[in-house]
Amino acid sequence: MKWVARFGSFFISFFSPLRGPGDDGGPTRLPLRPFLLPPCRYMGTLGSQVMCDNIPGLVNKQRQLCRQHPKVMQAIGGGMKDWIFECQHQFRSHRWNCNTTARDYSLFGRLPLRGSREVAFLYAISSAGVVYTLARACSQGELDSCSCDPTKKGSSWDEKGSFDWGGCSDHVEHAVRFSQTFVDAKDRKERDARALMNLHNNRAGRKAVKRFMTLECKCHGVSGSCSVRTCWLALADFRLTGDHLRRRYNSAVQVTVNQYGSGFTAAHTQFRHASKNDLVYLEDSPDYCIRDQESGSAGTAGRLCDRTSRGMDGCEVMCCGRGHDTARVSRTTKCECKFHWCCAVHCRDCHQQVDVHTCKSQT
User: Fold this and answer.
1) Are residues 256 and 164 in the same domain?
2) Domain extent at residue 323
3) Rounded to an integer, what distance in angstroms lies between the CA atom of residue 258 and that of residue 200?
4) Which of 60, 130, 222, 315 is the 20 to 30 Å CA partner of 207?
């Protein structure tokens, strides 16, 4: 998965302006450092070959695809920040929060070397993100190599009756095929235990996107009678995929490679075998309490915690027993909002003093 980290770092800096925390008034963004290449406006001068040759971590098959499909690569680069934010959302209350060491220039920071369940989630969410991004780019007409799903023609039916295919169905099958070819290329060459783990989790991520495809329809007929329906398949919100993969993370199966080196068996015989939808991992996770570059842990020093919670976000758990610091800060929120005809809502800015708790550093 080094291609994801390095490739993501390259594209986010290459195709996007560098953005710091709160530039758009939204949540704090993962800090990213610029790669040593010029921005997107110079892409025509550089050419796809120069661009692809300067992305570290790609194998020959990936470089070849990159040169052949520069617009696809640009779409993937633009979508990467969306699924890293989804990863951070899913683990916002976890010691490991999809961030590792700040000194690394990669999208996820330095990826942990061990085959932990966190790495399993990273591979799955990244693979899912590639599928989601490409399927959406196809249906929005951003790519020359694909458009709407051409197989959705004629008539079909569901539990409500018959309908005609119309509109623009998201071409998820094309996105799955490209993702499988590009994302899996490096691990298909290796074929060791870690490669098998990566390939399995990549597939689970792709399947998760397909799982939440929804049939959307528009009714036609007198007075909305819906005597005729026109329908299309659409991607669901990516949050559903993120939620699903987080649940799979919680129930991930620890595995070992079978005697033939072709698949997995459960590491503990009392547990079930892994299905194609499960996430699998090889090694136990570190505790992520302290900063450790070898394991990819950024530690929890300085992390926000909830003093009253007994869960993962509680100060006792989040801070690993090191204790926490408390500071009083002023926060501004909208309050006393009133609706004025027509059509505006006016609010006051209210200032509130709140206590903020952060984990102490290791002594």
Assistant:
1) yes
2) 304-359
3) 14
4) 60
